[in-house]
Amino acid sequence: MNEALAPLREPNFRYYWLSRLIDRAGTTMAGVALAFAVLEVSDSASALGTVLAAYSIPMVVFLLAGGVLADRFGRTLVIQAANVLSGLSQLASAALVISGTAEVWHLAALAAINGTASAAGMPALAGVLPQLVPRDQLKAANLVLAVPENALMILGPAVSGVLVAVVGPGWALAVDGATYLLATLVLTRVRIPRPAEGEHKRGAVADLRAGWTYFRSTTWLWVVVAAFSLLNAITSGAFNTLGPVLATETDIGEAGWGLIRSSQAVGFLVCSLILIRLSLRRPLRWGMVAMALAGLPMVVLGFEPVLVAGMAAAFLAGLGSQVFGLGWDLAMQEHVPDEMLSRVYSYDMLGSFVAIPVGQLLFGPLGLTFGIQRVMVIAGLAYVAIAIATLASRSVRDLPRAATVESVSAP
Q1: Which end of the chain has fewer CB atoms surrounding its CB within 10 Å, N or C?
Q2: Is it the case that residue 290 has pLDDT exceeding 90?
Q3: What is the pLDDT of residues 371-399, one digit of tens each?
Q4: How far is residue 100's CA from residue 40's CA, in Å, rounded to a whole number?
Q5: Is the pLDDT score of 140 beyond 90?
Q6: Is the dihedral angle over the CA atoms 239, 87, 12, 120 positive or is it negative?
């Protein structure tokens, strides 16, 4: 336990950890709240897909710029600016929903602002950890972040579902907006030196080119990212867009959908505790095998939308997603040079997220045409097949932990 909690002895990491915790407390409520806010304004899966796409399209478009900003101006500064913009846009959405004046285009426009802010902040968040703790503490630091965040993911969707049912979705959006601003205040206590002025004299285009060269020449990177381009499109369309609609049309209901999302978070939490004892010597091999479990909720709910079965499948999906999440972060943080880590993360995110708007816009009409349950079953089976197919690449199967490489090569 002392080894697992060692990162918290670093002051910079402690404040970063607290800031992330506050931020996550609101964010875990926002997904459920926004979905039902849109469905309250327009009872349409296509409308929900439009608002979700309005968030994800600018997020995808500006991700590469976010990676350059983070490596060039300092990751904590970029995170703070992104948080402020996200917080203000969420508070504006909350005010419109609470006042009863919200329209779909209002929520779509504010979602686009939030997506732009996320594009700036996500590569910085992903790349900052190696600057906060020694490299031999990266696994512990990732898990110290994951355990309480996953605990909040259990409570957040369930609380949000209850709030939606009792007082409406606007209040959950308001909580999310306020936590963005509070998290920004806490993050001001983190002290990380900004990049030296001469470090990026080549210009933004040259920085992007260097990141792209590394990305395309690293096989395990582009293979997994290519797979997740399809996997995330399926999840965003079949689960995140069709799932809430299926819930409202069956006995699952809004509160039940919140419980399903919370069950997934229980899987995250349980797995993050188990992983404290495991080394994941082949992080991507085990990560992609486990990731196949994330297709189960779509298959189960598509065959028969029963709350208990959906919760059990979501729990297994959470287990698998946490194994992959840790394995991917360790692969990136241990193998990618720190000076270009945010840029490489931005290419990772761009490739992984680029097809999300397609899924959000496509699956609503597909569900209306062929039936929501049938589409969800086919999507879930395709998800499992794609995740397993990545293991055909030896670079993915055999990538070791950096510590393993060092121990083998040491005299």
Answers
A1: C
A2: yes
A3: 888 999 999 999 999 999 999 999 999 99
A4: 10
A5: no
A6: positive
Q: Report the alpha-carbon distance of residue 344 to residue 287 in Å, rounded.
A: 19
CA angle 156, 313, 280 (to 5 degrees): 85
What CA–CA distance (Å, rounded) separates 385 from 100? 44
Q: Six-digit token pair at 146? A: 């994951």
pLDDT reading at 294 higher than 90 = yes
Task: Write the Ramachandran bin of 219: left for phi over 0, alpha for psi from -120 to 50, otherwise beta.
Answer: alpha
- Name the CATH code of domain 10-188+203-404 (choices 1.25.40.10, 1.10.10.60, 3.30.230.10, 1.20.1250.20): 1.20.1250.20
Structure-block tokens of residue 196: 């030296």
Q: Are 215 and 344 within 8 A, CB to CB?
A: yes
Q: How does pLDDT run across 51-81, given as a tens digit for each residue?
A: 888 887 888 788 888 787 877 777 788 888 8
Instruction: With residue 39 as reference, give the H or E element that holds it.
Output: helix 11-41
